[in-house]
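Field notebook, page 424. I keep forgetting to write these up properly, so this time I am using the form the group agreed on. The chain and the ligand, FE3-S4 cluster, are recorded exactly as supplied. Prediction of the bound pose follows.
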Amino acid sequence: MKLTDDEKAMLDGAEGKARQKALEFLIRYGTALGAERLVDTNNVGGYMIADRAGYQKFGGSFDALFSLTGLDSEEPIELPKVKAFSCQFETDMDPEYCKIEGKDEEDYKRFRANEKWLSKIGVTLMCTCTPYLVGNVPVKGEHCAWMESSAVVYINSVLGARTNCEGNASTTAAMLTGKIPYWGFHTDEHRRGTHRIQVEVPVKGLMEWGLLGYYIGKQVGEKVPVVDGIHVLPSRDDLKQFGAATASSGGVEMYHIPGITADAHTLEEAFGGRTGIVELKYGPAERKWAYEQLNLIGTDKNVDFVMFGCPHNSIQQVEEIVKLLEGKHIKDGSHMWVLVPHTIKDLATRNGYTKIIEDAGAVLMSDTCPALGHLMPKGTKVMATNSAKQAHYLPSMMGIEAWYGTTEDCVNAAITGRWEGELK
Ligand code: F3S
């Protein structure tokens, strides 16, 4: 791999052992991927979570734990301040709701100690999979090193930033060095479309964008779909849902909607001269297929848990839920969680939304999610959600049934305890 002078110096140890080890790791990783060089990054997002087992195993030493998992070093190295702007993504719990998450005092102490250590090394505690909703909004062309499939597909496609879907070790190393291998979605070549999807039905609203994304992800896998035939401008939250769905049923990290997403104004630009494009269509039959797939595990119409916010909700989404919920109460024995970044929770509280949600018997939860934290109210059997991603993952992860529908379908299910959603 070709190295610049500053990289050579870092590799020789001029900036200390942690950065030296981190760079060694990135060179091995990049070489295995066929990268010929590294690229500078000043925007890294990762999960630096010491789970309970890891925390105990390393006697509470975050340096020892992350030396092993982040730097591939058995020898504990004291981690210095990060070099790149770095943010913590979603974590495994919301410290405010230990009890309903099934967490105890030890988890609480671990969580707070983890946060303290992250602050010490300079990692910004955004604690969300949607940092782009709360201030970390990369610009077009910016090289990033982010984890989390829904965030990666959003910033690559909607914002035109450049990242691959990184892992724990590569994001830790990127935080410390400000470098990441230059390959994959950092390059123009990799970002060109491979499939054209002709959309033949109107797509409007969160549920419909989830269905379209779910269908496309299943068809294209890890390729780059180009969506044609969209006549109603999607909202940011529609695109957030769409990308997360494509990354769940498939492994999409980048898509184009010419004229709407960042890289391409036209179909020609989206394909960039590539030939052998695969043609697909999305019509009534494909829409019905996606809806049925996402409701495949639902048989019991008695719903005991409703969740919103995968990816984490925006303030507009919280407001929509509040409008549907205000003055009502969820069914006794049912649970409803609305997930947000903690910054949005602050905003919701100042606007009175948190109180409305709590008065209705629901919870506005931040920092975590059921899939990442393996969290769910005790005894949950049947969940309803407006998230295609959670409807895809949670039934198999948590052994529950799930219903997928509109935000309104889901709020109604929380209030009545019954699922009445259907494809209209
Ligand atoms: Fe975010 Fe958890 Fe969904 S990390 S994208 S809310 S699975």
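OBSERVATIONS:
- Residues 90, 129, 148, 150, 244, 310-312, 339, 369, 371-372, 389 surround FE3-S4 cluster (CB under 6 Å).
- The chain has a mean pLDDT of 96.
FOLLOW-UP: compare against the apo run.
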